[in-house]
Amino acid sequence: MLADKACARVLYVDLSRKTYWVKERPDLFEKYLGGTGVAVKLLREEMNLSADPLGPGNVVVFAVGAFTAAYPTASKTVAMFKSPHTGNLGESHAGGRSAVAIKMAGFGAIVIKGESDIPVYLSIHDGKVFFRDASALWGVRSTYTVGRVLRERESWPGLRTIMRIGRAGERLIKYAGVVTETYRHFGRLGLGAVWGSKKLKALVVGGRRAIPVADPRKYREVYDKIYDKVVKSDSMKKYHDLGTPVNIIPLNKIGALPTRNLTSARFEGAENISGEAIAETMLARRVACSHCPVACIHIAAIREEYPHEKYFYTTKYVSYDYEPLYALGTMLGVSDREGVLRLIEEVDVEGLDAMSTGVALAWATEAFQRGIITERETIVKPSWGDWRTYIQMVKYIVEQPNEFYRKLGEGTQEAAKTYGGVEFAMTFGKNEMPGYHAGPATHLGYVIGARHSHLDNAGYSYDQKLIGKEYPPPEKVIDDLMKEEAWRQILSSLVVCFFARKVYTPELVAEGLEALGIKIDAEGLKKLGWEIYAEKYRLKLDMGFDLEKDLKLPKRIFETPSPHGKISEEFMQKALDHFRKRIKELTGK
Amino acid sequence: MITLSAQAVKAEVKPKRLVVVNPDLCVGCMSCMFACARRFPNGGLAKAAIHVRSVGGFERGFTVIVCRACPNPPCAKVCPTGALTPRKGGGVTLNPSKCIGCGMCREACPFGAIQWDTELNKPVICVHCGYCVNYCPHGVLSLEEVRW
What we know:
The structure holds 2 protein chains of 2 kinds. Chain A is α+β, with helices and mostly antiparallel strands. Helices cover 41% and strands 15% of the residues of chain A. Chain B has helices at residues 6-12, 31-38, 74-78, 104-108; strands spanning 16-20, 43-44, 51-54, 62-65, 84-86, 92-94, 115-117, 122-124, 141-145. By secondary structure, chain B is an alpha+beta fold. In chain B, a hairpin with a 5-residue loop joins strand 5 and strand 6 (92-94).
């Protein structure tokens, strides 16, 4: 039994009636540990699965886990909702202060239902929910400003999270995200639009409390074991040093770096926007998520002259990671270091998902070059590398000056369906692709992923490890990806950052749980991972995910060679057939 | 061979205090806060005597707030029940059974260095043990001999 009873408290907020209530749910938290496992269950309990993702029937669940505020690097919050972008299950994770703040406020999960008639933001602390008028914050141009305002107004500095949407979310752009602590994001799958439809501008959660443990001596012993592995071993070195952009040069070298809408997998400007180059010339500060000594958040500084005054300067700060550098850099052919950072900043200001935005612009650029669309649609002239024009286009996506940008705001797939160019619309299940073209497993990983992210099952890492070796048969690839996916359900239930996945072995997780009062061994955990995976896929299928229609691969991935050569369609079809069979067995559906 | 009496050895041990060497190096990971709370020995942050927060946004860095072991501590001066008494080497010790949780100490400290245990409604007082120092990966904190 969990020694910390409060971690099983679920806060329910009804925006329509401006009311809230709390339920104790030890049944869920003791069995599923928190995070993904609990969120899947809560969503199923609370939501009519056929609800309109942008209507009052959609439900947003935020869940933290058994390890949150107990062990280092357990710093992520899981958000689960129906995605307006795919029409299916949406799951997005973010760090910052969010996870520890929710746990310290005395909750294991927050369920947000209904929709408000006026813009509101929620302030959650001291066991209460305060509904605050956000009319004045609605329409504010920058998510940075909203953060500043709430920072001044609300309580619990240092121990709170300030999640907010930008204009993109307000205007229901289907791939609008939720920004937390300015530099972290629930980026993918349109959580920002869901908030916008509910007129929820921001969520501030804070507090402070003790997490009682079952075995204090064991707890400190396991803590030190984990802490030492995180800080001293090599397992997290890559995130510790250059952060995720460390990937740019190696991926370019092996020809796995999607460039100019994946017309190429090598980018001649890679060196210029590499993790090394940015760190050496512009890195201004390193910042950590709560309870993570790694501090992988990299913030770059741009020195900026005043527009009309000489010798007046200011400094802009932009956080950068691999995925935004891929989507708004290589994918758009932008090699100007400052340019790509300014583009990332604009995407942050508006509150869009960097990956979907970059891929949508890449499609638009290629479509423009091919003459499928003209300036009548795009207003400006997109061309690879021209980041100034892309900044303008980002604004247009949000401002929606014409029918074309309205379509582009619905996603790459929707725009391509209307204007043409589906074969080079780089989407998987309507969601824009992550930044790897490392081989068959990479793309299989995207399309079968339980939350449509490159971090689902790390197919890209699987491919990289296989370079120079014999490639396994399709069935084995699927089996391996699914096995990894199952284990990651445990990590995202605890909720541990996937970057620390090598630290948290099944044995160590079992030890950590024991100190907190949950007895389950490594084998039991693996089994539970499969169970959560099955529950999640059942939920997906019940929301309408179609194993025949929705497992589609964009043509372009077969044209541009990967480090494993040209990807064979036959191989991929065999793999997907095997996946369909395995999912049917797993879910019993 | 020189032998020292137990008394003499004790006299050699100078009191120490926790020092924030360079808050500009802080990345805001909060490991020190969790370490402090773990002494009690819980997870979470209820009993953390050290506090880290940004100076108005992550990009501007962090401030690390902890008792600086004043030789003449104002918090002890305002305590109406004598629960806080000056400690050798600076700072104070708390006698929780005398403390009524009035919060005067918190008001009196110009650094805002007295944290509050909302569960017990009593101050959380740094005892300058230096446990947190072991968990700062960036050398922000150190335990040093008191020089004043």
